Amino acid sequence: MSDNLTHLQQLEAESIHILREVVAEFNNPVMLYSIGKDSAVMLHLARKAFYPAPPPFPLLHVDTTWKFREMIQFRDRMAAECNLDLIVHVNEEGVNRGVSPFTHGSALYTDVMKTEGLKQALDRYKFDAAFGGARRDEEKSRAKERIFSFRSANHRWDPKSQRPELWNLYNTRIKPGESIRVFPISNWTELDVWQYIHLEQIPIVPLYYAAVRPVVERDGMLIMVDDDRLELQPGEKVEYKSVRFRTLGCYPLTAAVESEADTLPRIIQEMLLTRTSERQGRMIDHDQAGSMEKKKQEGYF
Amino acid sequence: MAHQSDLIESDILAYLKSQEEKTLLRFITCGSVDDGKSTLIGRLLWDSKMVFEDQLAALEVDSKKVGTQGGAIDYALLLDGLQAEREQGITIDVAYRFFSTDKRKFIVADTPGHEQYTRNMVTGASTAQVAVILVDARKGLLTQTRRHSFLVSLVGIRNVVLAINKMDLIDFDQKQFDAIQRDYEKFAAPLGFASITAIPLSALNGDNMIEASANTPWYSGPTLMGYLENVPVAGDSRGEPFRLPVQWVNRPHLDFRGFCGTIASGTVRPGDEILVASSGRTSRVARIVTMQGDLPEATAGQAVTLTLKDEIDVSRGDMLTIPDAPPLHTRHPEAHLVWMHDEPLQPGQLYLVKTASAVTPGRVTAVQYVVDVNTLEQKQEPTLGLNGIGVVRLELDRPVSFDPYRNNRDTGSFILIDRYTNATVAAGMVITAPVDPDAVQVTEFTPEVVVCEDAAPVRISLSAASVSASGASVVDLSSEGCAIEFEISPSFIEHLGKGNRVLFRLKDLGQLHAVALLAFQQRLSFEFDRTAEGISILVFRRGIKPVENSYADTGTSI
Ligand SMILES: Nc1nc2c(ncn2[C@@H]2O[C@H](COP(=O)(O)OP(=O)(O)OP(=O)(O)O)[C@@H](O)[C@H]2O)c(=O)[nH]1
Ligand SMILES: [Mg+2]
């Protein structure tokens, strides 16, 4: 706590402290890498925290098989450039049952391909700590979560009995089978993340920048036609528009916004002038009130 | 998000530049149940235009469904994000929210008022620089107002706002406002706040939140936002003695050994001499390593990697410090303890004590006293129950480096963890460390009394011969009846210069003058302690590695 540092320097130091604490105290940590801007910042912070060593843990991507193609290319490039092990996990059971956002609805699809997939991967590799790039300013229940967030052996979060978390003294004690989810950028805002990407010149997936892309309008949202699995419904037609994404996920569930912002400063400018939150483009949040809390209790990030 | 600045549209790069220079203020809201803490933050977010359209739409729906304002906007619902909170209309756990104005960035922790959730309030307070303590103008001070105020002062928050809320329900009555302010100032006098700023508010309607209210023409102080934007951000510890708790040792290959950690206070540059507090060994800083090139200097708050010129033994749990102002290194800290668990403290039972970087088994040996949060009086009680606050003595299995919490929040704090359940059961703040009883080799020394006339002081001569043992020796003056004076031989000073320490046992404060004079004239340091037997003063020369004592640092058996 010091006023000689800028607010971004303070946030950076806090995050690096958290990353190091995990590496010092846990046997088998992993970083959940979702390929988005928050993951990009988290990975960059990890590289700084352990320099000149590479971050001493693997990256884990839970692949729903519906990610944008550009995300997958970017993921593989970053893992190679940063000299990190990349574990890609797919819930094969879900794939075998043909679970897709179109046929099973976004709620079940997310539960099977993301939440179940994540729990499978954590169990298989016996990770005792998992870094996630969630931020408290994203959503009301995230605003309530600890930086070191305890999970039972069944990966459940109990929001009513979180451990007190004082100063920067994190309780890292767990029993076999239990784990901790750690959120190093809890206290960053969307603006902080963009500003930091700008200042530190952190590479991000090109989908964040505006470009002319094929989209269809569905339920008032612009969905990008990323491959031929997107079946057009009656009356829908593919249009070419200059669009970009405020947040990245599975392409059928992530809405694009019309935009001309093709540089970082212009993206930030647009973000500052907008009247809606970044999660608006995420369909999973709209299913029901308190849905994020429920998903998190069940093991979602 | 409608940030006010026109710069966003006209010159985004200039705007981004201006953002880099903003200061960051962390604050909390606290106080008793239903005093309006969540509403106050919700209103601040609203008024500083931090609520997005989609969130607003959700808020309108929620307010109708579970709101406490009969369908009108219930700002608390912007904060109370857990299902259980919305159903009960209360806050259970702390919520962290973020907003900014043209002047500052803010991180605010909205804490629960219910006594049951005090631990969550302490969680929020531990990282805050300012506290907004709410009072319901109809009710005045309540037990929780006092408990939270005491906790706020304990965690080292120096500037507080006394937010007298719900003024709309008492017709903005100035008399009532003044009476509450007077009550509070009286209660809080012993808490030692640097400033208490009372503001008449209606969090619900926005009076004196951002703009001065027409309903309180008698009030000329700042609005809440005005206060928050201008209160000095405390905590610049660049000038304090250097402290780096070592968090992790980075060894990517044989030629690199970097010591990683967050600088708790002070400044460091390559070439600086540093001391490892646990071993007394010294070295010099070789480099301050970062991915973007070596740094010429690093200061408090930065997370750094240092390399040293010599191959000395340093590991996680050690503290790197400047040699001439080392921290306490002790097994027996005395500390404020806030108990946060349903099961009361078990004195004598082993807990894990987690400090800035070390985890050490330890036990509470004695509860010195418990504080009554209503009267701030000290009571004798054998233990601490849920939400109890007291002063305790600890015994750690091995010595740990600390500073008094009032000097350094990062190196003076610790938590206690239950070994069986892994629950965090208490928060601790080090007050001091009395002289380690087992670190003192008692060589009884009977002072040579030169004269003892009636009113004249007793002259006591001190020489190396009288305190020949190495380590610490005791000069017992507790049986001397009258005032004392020292006759000091150069050998005695030389003895201290070698890192030896001398413990003076005094009968009363009247004898302190002679010891203080000795320290002043000879440029020595001393530590003061009040014990059951009387007063003890440990005299030593700062900056010199203490001579090892005969006791082993291996800790007591478990
Ligand atoms: N009339 C009036 N009502 C208020 C004011 N501030 C808050 N309230 C109401 O007081 C009730 C309690 O407000 P909250 O903000 O939930 O109180 P709190 O202090 O956060 O409560 P806990 O967190 O559960 O301790 C709600 O019904 C609010 O709408 C005010 O200034 N005037
Ligand atoms: Mg509340």
From TrEMBL, chain A:
Please list where the region (Disordered) is annotated. 279-301
Top enzyme class, one word, equals transferase
Q: Which SUPFAM superfamilies match?
A: Adenine nucleotide alpha hydrolases-like (SSF52402)
List its EC numbers. 2.7.7.4
Tell me the Pfam families matching this sequence. PAPS_reduct
What does the UniProt function comment say about this protein?
With CysN forms the ATP sulfurylase (ATPS) that catalyzes the adenylation of sulfate producing adenosine 5'-phosphosulfate (APS) and diphosphate, the first enzymatic step in sulfur assimilation pathway. APS synthesis involves the formation of a high-energy phosphoric-sulfuric acid anhydride bond driven by GTP hydrolysis by CysN coupled to ATP hydrolysis by CysD.
Q: How does it assemble?
A: Heterodimer composed of CysD, the smaller subunit, and CysN.
Quote the protein name from its UniProt record: Sulfate adenylyltransferase subunit 2
Native source species: Pelotalea chapellei
From TrEMBL, chain B:
List GO molecular-function terms, semicolon-separated.
Answer: sulfate adenylyltransferase (ATP) activity
Which InterPro entries does this chain map to?
CysN_GTP-bd, CysN_II, CysN_NoDQ_III, EFTu-like_2, G_TR_CS, GTP-eEF1A_C, P-loop_NTPase, SO4_adenylTrfase_lsu
EC number annotated for this UniProt entry: 2.7.7.4
Catalyzed reaction equations: sulfate + ATP + H(+) = adenosine 5'-phosphosulfate + diphosphate
UniProt keyword S-adenosyl-L-methionine, yes or no? no
Q: Which Gene3D superfamilies match?
A: P-loop containing nucleotide triphosphate hydrolases, Translation factors
Q: What class of enzyme is it?
A: transferase
Cross-referenced PROSITE patterns? G_TR_1 (PS00301), G_TR_2 (PS51722)
The record's section on CDD domains has: CysN_ATPS, CysN_NodQ_II, CysN_NoDQ_III
According to its UniProt record, in which pathway does this protein act? Sulfur metabolism; hydrogen sulfide biosynthesis; sulfite from sulfate: step 1/3
The UniProt keywords, alphabetically, are: ATP-binding, GTP-binding, Nucleotide-binding, Nucleotidyltransferase, Transferase
The residues the record assigns to binding GTP are 31-38, 110-114, 165-168
Q: Where is the Tr-type G domain?
A: 22-238
Q: Report quaternary structure and partners.
A: Heterodimer composed of CysD, the smaller subunit, and CysN.
Cited function: With CysD forms the ATP sulfurylase (ATPS) that catalyzes the adenylation of sulfate producing adenosine 5'-phosphosulfate (APS) and diphosphate, the first enzymatic step in sulfur assimilation pathway. APS synthesis involves the formation of a high-energy phosphoric-sulfuric acid anhydride bond driven by GTP hydrolysis by CysN coupled to ATP hydrolysis by CysD.
The record's family statement is: Belongs to the TRAFAC class translation factor GTPase superfamily. Classic translation factor GTPase family. CysN/NodQ subfamily.
Query: Any idea what this protein is called?
Result: Sulfate adenylyltransferase subunit 1
Q: Which organism is it from?
A: Pelotalea chapellei
Q: Which gene encodes it?
A: cysN
